[in-house]
């Protein structure tokens, strides 16, 4: 059975999807972009600020399912410019212990929703 996870501490979905779905002990998050849930404005000042907002949104979704980044087993990062990889990776790394970090792929794409620079989704297990 699936349980829908939504929290006001992360941006509301902008389409026919939910922030996350929990099935059994596995959580599948939707991709998060850098919407500030308090203002509904995109945080695009710098790639560092944008990535931090994405990670904070994911942190809120994980918390709504009683999980943390320690529960994450897989991350998918979509970026619009591979030249931003280093800065995105630096921010991402602050949320994980290098020895127990999840599996991950990073893919450059032509465009992302709202023409943002980074979108991240995760799979986590209790």
From TrEMBL:
Signal sequence annotation: none
Alphabetical list of InterPro entries matching this protein: RidA, RutC-like_sf, YjgF/YER057c/UK114
Family matches, as Gene3D superfamilies: RutC-like
A single GO molecular function term of this UniProt record: deaminase activity
Any one annotated GO CC term: cytosol
Pfam family, one: Ribonuc_L-PSP
Family (UniProt): Belongs to the RutC family.
PANTHER family, per database record: 2-IMINOBUTANOATE/2-IMINOPROPANOATE DEAMINASE RIDA, PROTEIN HMF1-RELATED
Name of the protein: 2-iminobutanoate/2-iminopropanoate deaminase
């Amino acid at each position: 059975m699936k349980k829908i996870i939504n929290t006001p501490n992360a941006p509301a979905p902008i389409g026919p999807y939910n922030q996350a779905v929990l099935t059994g002990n596995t959580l599948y998050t939707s991709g998060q972009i850098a919407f500030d849930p308090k203002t509904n404005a995109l945080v695009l000042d710098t790639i560092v600020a944008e990535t931090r907002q994405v990670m904070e949104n994911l942190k809120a979704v994980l918390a709504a399912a009683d999980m943390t980044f320690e529960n994450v087993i897989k991350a998918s990062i979509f970026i619009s410019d591979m030249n931003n990889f280093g800065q995105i990776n630096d921010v991402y790394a602050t949320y994980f212990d290098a020895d127990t970090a999840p599996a991950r792929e990073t893919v450059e794409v032509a465009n992302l929703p709202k023409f943002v620079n980074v979108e991240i989704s995760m799979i986590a297990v209790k």
